[in-house]
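Format notes (please read before filing issues)

Several people have asked whether sequences and structure tokens are stored in separate files. They are not. Every record keeps both together, in the order shown below: the sequence lines, then the token lines. Line labels are part of the format and must not be stripped during preprocessing.
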Amino acid sequence: MHILINPGDDLPIYRQIMRQVMDAIAGGRLTAGERLASHRELSEQLVIAPLTVKKAYDELETLGYIESQRGRGTFVSAHLPKVSRAVRDSQLLDSARALLSQAYLAGLRYADVLKALAEANHDLTDEPARTRRKES
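Then the structure lines:
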């Protein structure tokens, strides 16, 4: 997995790492049991402090997305965190409202949001971006 850091981003670097690892897991580009780069390897690759990578990995481990095995390395967790259907649905609805509110305030239309979602899905999963619906 290749991680890209944007120093000018409002999101702290450790959060950028977390987001990209979580996106890769969600999109299937990282699978259960897959080994991640060590703190040192990733910090050298990104030219950042090893403690920044450690902070990202520690938070990901606390959330249940990755697990460290002493002497072996860091791996994608075999058992990803589960949330109840009610909590998941509530979080999704909150996120959808926030996304639509932001889009509408920016002058975008619902169709623009659907297109952006299709592109984001493609980025996460490598599935083709489909923005047209079949007409009945």
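For reference, the curators noted about this record: The radius of gyration is 17 Å. The chain has two domains: 13-76, 85-125.
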